[in-house]
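Re: weekly structure request thread

Next one in the queue (166 aa):
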Amino acid sequence: MTERTVSRRTLFTAALVLPMGACTPIADQFSSLFASKPKYTLSPRGDRLVRWLQNGGRDNMMAPEVMGMYGITNEGRDIPVKQFAEDGRDGRYVVSLVNIRKVHEFVFHRRQGEVLVFHHCDTSFGRIGSIRYPRNGKPVTVTDNAFADSDFQQQLAYWFDRLPGR
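Done, posted below.
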């Protein structure tokens, strides 16, 4: 007699599983188990904010000091951005769309008196870093996460209230 190299149980399991793999939702679930996740994802609000800035934002240049602390550089030159700026009740709010690394990134900042507070985030609004920049000083990374998260959420709420198509 000859020995089997593949058991009946394996063939039966394959016969059941292979047709299910052709279904798109199940195939996506299996492929997501083995594929690496992208670093930046575009949320629906992120997509709307990107389009709003691209269509109506003002072309502007940002100084490289703060952006360099986020790792966004343009060989020492100013960083090109699309930007909206408005005066709010508690300071001037600015949102900037940066695309210098071929990936959309947001930089939110607000002027409160003589201090600018910057927040860098991806398009799914995950805060990557925060910087405090006094008018006559040097930029410093914010180490107080509670303050940084609170201020970041206030700035997001300000711009989400103005975002068209909510």
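The beta strands are 58-62, 79-88, 91-98, 105-112, 115-121, 127-134, 140-141. Residues 17 and 54 are 45 Å apart (CA to CA).
Next request, please.
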